[in-house]
Each structure stands twice: as structure tokens, then as C-alpha cells.
Write a structure and sequence with these properties.
Layout lengths: L3 H27 L5 H19 L5 H16 L4 H21 L8 H25 L6 E2 L2 E2 L1 H39 L1 H22 L1
Antiparallel strand pairs: 1-2
């Protein structure tokens, strides 16, 4: 990923994810919106797939996840468990897209599989890490990992996230594939627009945090 243009797109998509985590995440959790993490994951799935349709390079989705994580770290209270969850979604999507979406330019079962694996894989990695490695207090019961809570997060939350992924990941890829040629034709304008959007998002972060 040596192209400056590609890096700009990844930073833009990561920042779009990050600002939703700051604005939507804070509102959802403050108002106890049911399955808040699922709604946020859905937005992430859409952005990750759209970006991958434009920049289909190994590592690109991890960069987007890292950017979203940094955005939230800078502009929201440092809930490190949330940051970990964001990064894991980007990482697992990257692995899935690298394995199954290389050179794919039309709808297939591969996009569905990428979405499902991202949902269950991201939720499972998060739950296992937070309960068994970090031993975060809310995930413990009498000092030991709360297995029912871990399983509920993976199979209940993960299943709801997987359902959103079945719709939003193929949709995101379709948007990305459709945008790729337009971006290439108007490369200079696209780069200028990406820079402006990036500046606006990080400036907005200062005012909404």
C-alpha cells in the first residue's frame, strides 16, 4: 500500500467509523440502547466492505480499524475494552477479506462468509481477551471469568451482528466496486475531497468530544 491515495481513503473510512463510535456510541450507551454494539458493528461492516471494494489490499482493513480506534481514543473517554473491540473487528475483517475476497468483483458467497466470520470472530476474540487475558472485572464472577457472559456475547451478540453483516457487507462491497472506477477517473478530485473530509472529521471530533 505505497499509494498516498490509498492511505487517504483508509484514513477517511477509519475516521468515519471513529466518529460514529464517538457520537453514536456515547449516545447509545448513555441511553441504554439495546444491542448498542451490534448497531455500531453494522456501521463498521458497511464501511469496511465499501473501503475494501475500493482498496482491496491485505492490511487495509486493519489500518481502518486502527484509525477508528485512535479516533475514539483521542475524542472519547478511554474505555479500553471498546477500543479493543473496534480493532478486533477491523483485524478479523482483514483476515477474511484477504482469504476470500481477493480479485472478487461481484456478489458471491465469499462476501457473506467474510461478514459472518468477522462478526463471530470479532466478538469471540473480544470476549476471550477481556475475560480470560485482561480479566476485566465486569466479565468476572467471583474472581474467575464469567463463562455464561462470554458465551452470550459470542453467540447472542455475535449472531445479531452476523445477521447485520449478511446484509451490510455485500452492500458495502457493491458500493465500493461501483465507486472504484469513478475514483480512478477523477483521482485528483478524489484525493482533494478525501483530504477535506479527513480534516472536517478530525475538526468535528474536537467539538463533539
Amino acid at each position: 500500500m505505497k499509494s498516498l491515495k490509498n492511505w487517504l481513503w483508509l484514513l477517511v473510512f477509519g475516521s468515519l467509523w471513529g466518529i460514529m463510535e464517538v457520537v453514536g456510541g456515547e449516545a447509545f450507551f448513555r441511553n441504554n440502547v439495546p444491542h448498542a454494539s451490534v448497531w455500531l458493528s453494522g456501521w463498521a461492516f458497511l464501511l469496511l466492505a465499501t473501503a475494501r471494494g475500493i482498496v482491496n489490499k491485505p492490511g487495509s482493513s486493519t489500518v481502518i480499524g486502527a484509525t477508528a480506534t485512535l479516533f475514539k481514543l483521542v475524542y472519547a473517554a478511554p474505555y479500553f475494552c471498546h477500543l479493543l473491540g473496534i480493532f478486533y473487528i477491523g483485524l478479523v475483517f482483514d483476515i477474511g477479506a484477504t482469504l476470500w475476497m481477493k480479485n472478487v468483483k461481484k456478489f458471491s458467497w465469499r462476501s457473506l462468509l467474510t461478514g459472518i466470520v468477522t462478526a463471530y470472530g470479532g466478538y469471540a476474540l473480544f470476549a476471550v481477551t477481556i475475560a480470560y487475558i485482561a480479566k476485566f472485572e465486569p466479565w468476572l464472577s467471583a474472581g474467575t471469568p464469567n463463562l455464561p457472559k462470554v458465551l452470550n456475547h459470542i453467540f447472542s451478540g455475535g449472531s445479531l451482528a452476523a445477521l447485520t453483516a449478511l446484509v451490510l457487507v455485500p452492500l458495502g462491497f457493491k458500493i465500493g466496486w461501483g465507486s472504484e472506477s469513478a475514483v480512478e477517473r477523477r483521482s485528483k478530485w478524489a484525493m482533494a475531497g478525501a483530504l477535506i473530509v479527513l480534516a472536517v472529521l478530525w475538526t468535528l471530533g474536537k467539538f463533539i468530544s
